[in-house]
Amino acid sequence: SxxxxxxxxxxLYTDTTGDVGDVLWLKTTSNGVADDTIPTGNGDIAxxxxxCLNADGKxxxxxxxxxxxxxxx
Length: 73
Known about the structure:
Layout: E1 8-11, E2 23-26, E3 34-35, E4 45-46, E5 48-52, E6 59-62, E7 69-70
Antiparallel strand pairs: 1-6, 2-3, 2-5, 4-7, 5-6
């Protein structure tokens, strides 16, 4: 059966463009994509979802933070 990852090392389908150790955020322009740039648009939600583990940006430590912030620009 298909499960759900709550925390741990995962490989992403798309490259995050991040460097090793970068904080990863949910990308606001593409649903479900990780990005190393914090969202800055008005009404965007900024939430840490994990950390980049290797140079190609596909292997991450997935550990979503319970805190999120709505950006008001």
